[in-house]
Each structure stands twice: as C-alpha cells, then as structure tokens.
Write a structure and sequence with these properties.
Layout: H1 3-7, E1 9-16, H2 23-39, E2 44-46, H3 74-86, E3 89-97, E4 103-110, E5 120-121, E6 146-148, E7 153-156, H4 165-173, E8 178-183, E9 186-188, H5 198-213, E10 216-221, E11 223-226, E12 229-232, E13 236-238, E14 244-247, E15 254-261, H6 263-272
Parallel strand pairs: 1-2, 2-3, 7-8, 8-10
Antiparallel strand pairs: 1-15, 3-4, 4-5, 6-7, 9-12, 10-13, 11-12, 13-14
Length: 291
C-alpha cells in the first residue's frame, strides 16, 4: 500500500443497541461496546440518536424534560474520558438543554484528546404520527457543522436530516469526507404503508447522498421494540459510490466496524463531476419557503 493511500485509511464503528428505561444502564452498555469497537480498530465511533433514552417523541405533548442535560454534562464527561483514554473520536447524540432553557436533539463530537467540538443541533424536525419531535425539540441554530478531527473530516446529521439532499450537499461542499447519521427509525406496529418499503427508502436515500456527493456515509440506527415502534436496526456504511461495505442485523444489537479508503472520494467526485458541474446560479428557488 502506498503512503498516500495509507494516510487516507480510517476505520469507523457504529454502535446499534436496544434501549431500556434505565439511562445509566444504556450508557454503560454503550461505553462497553465502544471499547469493543476500539479493540477492532475503530478510530471514529458513532452512536445512535438519543442513545441513552427510549424514543419518547412517539408520545404527543408529554413532559420529558427531566431526561435532558447540558453540554458539557454527565454524558459528555463520560465519553470525553473514554475518548481520551482510547484515543478515538466519539459521536455522542444527546437530548440537550441549553443555557437559555431551549431543548435540542443534538450530537456532540468528542475528539481523540477528549475535547468537545462544536455541537450539531438537528435542523430538520419531523412531526408525524409516532414521531412528534416538534413537541420536544427546537430546530437547530448552529447550522451545518463540519468537524476536523484527528482521524478524518466529517459532518454529523441526525435522523430526519437524512431525507434532505441539501443538508448532505452543504456538508460535502464544506469539506466533509464522511456523513454520519445517528438515527432512530423503524416500523409502526400494525401499519402497512401504501408507499412501499420504508427501510428500502431509508437506505436508498442515504446511499444516494454518497453517490451524489462522492463521500462515505455511515448510519447508526437503534434496534428493538419500544411502544408502538419496532426499530429496524440495519446500521450500515456506504462507500462514495453507494456500495454498502458493512450492514448490521435487523433484529439484534450490533457493532459495525468498517475500514474506509477516503481517497476514493476524490476519484468519484472528479470522475462523475457532480460537484464540479453544479449550476448554483440557477438554484435560487431552493431558498424559497414555498413548497
């Protein structure tokens, strides 16, 4: 292997868990699984959305503010210590309470020296049956954030963000080599969608972001049954042409570890020209509030 390719190699890990009512147990389970991923060579590890708690937004207009925490806070302190000890980067989704008293669905990136980088706050907030997130979360106000870490430059987008090509494109234009998507999505029990296979659409849209932008994509989803939802797991890593490198179980907890060759990004971007041949002078309607 030549030196340039070796420098472009990075191993990532995705932690897929079933979540209980015990937030401390959920965190300890995740801490243990991160250590396992690190032993397998993972240098960047991403957790699933709201990993410490059950997916409470499936219930309308209830008070779950007791589950929220500050950044820095208890969760970030634990993962900061672990990141420093293992010399790895960890993506930590949290239910954040800001100093101003607002509540966000957030992701904290902890660099390999334990430092907390800029928090990403989920920008696109869904509001659909069993996904009543607008009852709980303020739309993010930090913009899209690209993190330059010890091992790679990447962006974190959270769950519903993954359906929006604009978010992926902006992050790619800002230099992200990997898009991480912490996620909590699954099937509604007893519901047969007329639209088709939700899981297939979920994976396809994210693989399309990889192709359209010439970047790697890694999605960490939860698994197991909670209330009226059956989360489908299926965490996966895609290369910059949409080929799935690794995929997790649809039924069980799993740790996905995959080695990425980031030099492929430039080859795909140059070869297909999707970024080079853009026409931003024609894209004004994208900024319109009209549907």
């Amino acid at each position: 292997m030549d030196a340039s390719r070796k420098d472009s190699q990075v191993t990532v890990g995705l932690i897929q868990t079933a979540v209980s009512d015990d937030a401390s147990a959920n965190m300890n389970n995740t801490l243990q699984k991160i250590r396992g991923a690190a032993k397998k060579g993972a240098k960047i590890v991403c957790l699933q959305e709201l990993f410490r708690t059950k997916y409470f937004p499936q219930y309308e207009k209830k008070d779950f503010t007791s589950l929220a925490e500050t950044v820095p806070g208890e969760t970030t302190a634990a993962f900061s210590a672990l990141a420093k000890d293992l010399e790895i980067v960890i993506i930590v989704p949290v239910f954040e309470r800001s100093r101003e008293g607002k509540y966000y669905n957030s992701a904290v990136v902890v660099d390999a020296d334990g430092r907390l980088l800029k928090t990403y706050r989920k920008i696109h907030i869904p509001h659909d049956p069993l996904f009543y997130e607008q009852d709980y979360f303020t739309p993010g106000d930090n913009g899209f954030v690209v993190h330059k870490t010890r091992y790679a430059t990447f962006a974190v987008l959270i769950c519903y963000d993954q359906w929006f090509p604009e978010a992926a494109r902006i992050c790619a234009l800002q230099g992200a080599d990997i898009l991480f998507y912490p996620t909590a999505i699954g099937w509604i029990k007893g519901h047969n969608s007329e639209d088709g296979d939700w899981h297939d659409a979920w994976e396809t849209i994210q693989r399309s972001h990889a192709i359209a932008n010439g970047v790697h994509v890694a999605a960490a989803n939860r698994v197991g049954e909670e209330g009226n939802l059956k989360f489908w797991g299926g965490s996966f890593v895609s290369d910059p042409f949409g080929d799935v490198l690794k995929r997790a179980s649809f039924e069980r907890e799993a740790t996905v570890v995959a080695e990425l060759d980031l030099s492929r990004n430039a080859r795909i971007q140059e070869g297909w020209g999707f970024l080079r041949n853009r026409r931003p002078d024609t894209y004004g309607p994208l900024a319109s509030k009209k549907a």
